[in-house]
Amino acid sequence: MQFEQFKSSLNGAAPPAGISGAAQALWWQAKGDWHQAHRCCQDSHDEKGAWAHAYLHRVEGDERNAGGWYKRAGRNPSSATLEQEWEEIARAVL
Q1: How far apart are CA 88 and CA 67, in angstroms?
Q2: pTM of the shown model
Q3: With contact defined as beta carbons under 8 Å apart, do 51 and 92 qualify?
Q4: Is residue 45 predicted with pLDDT exceeding 90?
């Protein structure tokens, strides 16, 4: 799936079929459902899932928890805006 298709899917009621847990998490976060997004991340055990998980804790304002997830993802904590990081992760996981 291309990024623009993913972004357009935000007009729907559910994430597109067949996307990863990390992509689902980003989809739900963009829809304003942090808790559903977090549930999707908890089922994703790879580095991309950890990156999305870190992002969600950054959104939440829990920098300490986010830091642990960035480490699991093999990444440094982001200094980008939340919107920029969302797009960066989405492009990487699609």
Answers
A1: 17
A2: 0.95
A3: yes
A4: no
